[in-house]
Amino acid sequence: MPAPTALLRAPDQLAEASSKPEEPETSVILDPTALPENPESTQPTTSSQNEDSMQIDAEGRPKFAPSASQSHIPRVETRKVPIPPHRMTPLKANWSKIYPPLVEHLKLQVRMNVKAKAVELRTSKHTADSSALQKGEDFIRAFTLGFEVEDAIAFVRLDNQMFIQTFEIKDVKNLQGEHMGRAIGRFEHFHFDS
Question: What b-and-e string marks burial along 4-42, b requiring 16 or more CB atoms within 10 Å of the CB?
């Protein structure tokens, strides 16, 4: 009994179909010595030929269309942000609030290297944004300069470029005690009207 999906043909027709020789399809010459004088004659001139067929250049090498399915393989980059000794304790205390935005939002790999006193950031294959590593570094650096985690997270969330510029007052003038406090107050009032 034939299968229900089998073709319903008579055995005579099957025998005739199998006895007919198949005609060879168009062949491609791969031997460079057997190429004709005009190499452009082997290349297709009409657009009706299938795109999957192989084309040969003048030296006899096959030409392949560029692969569109491959995506750009990201390069792994690493940055180390040094942590000053007086910010190590707050970093440890707030670590549970610091790493989630870096890992979940920026898709970075993060670790706190206690021995080297640094936070190490690294891109991964899941990192989509090219500026993610810089945003993560700015976020950690802002925290090390004394910003609260909630304030420093603006570096991660905002798309516009924000910069941190700092300097030591002692590099400009050696001030001590109340003189330094007054200098800081004058500087803040002059540059940042509140």
Answer: eeeeeeeeeeeeeeeeeeeeeeeeeeeeeeebeeeeeee
Query: Do 118 and 140 touch, CB atoms closer than 8 A?
Result: no
DSSP element (H, E) containing 120: strand 118-122
Contacts of 122 (CB under 8 A, 6+ apart): 76, 77, 78, 79, 108, 109, 110
Render pLDDT for 164-193 as a digit per residue (tens, 0 to 9). Answer: 777 777 788 888 888 888 888 887 777 665
Buried-exposed string 112-135: b where 16+ CB fall within 10 A, e elsewhere: beeeeebbbbbbeeebeeeebbbb
- CA atoms of 45 and 60, how far apart (whole Å): 17
CB 105 within 8 A of CB 156: yes
* CA atoms of 117 and 80, how far apart (whole Å): 10
Q: How many CA atoms lie within 13 A of 68 on its CB side?
A: 1
**How far, in whole angstroms, is CA 19 from its chain's centroid?**
57
Given a contact cutoff of 8 angstroms between Cβ atoms, the answer to whether 140 and 87 are in contact is no
Predicted confidence (pLDDT) per residue in 160-172, tens digit: 667 777 777 778 8
- Tell me how many helices (H) and strands (E) the chain has: 8, 5
Q: pTM for this structure?
A: 0.54
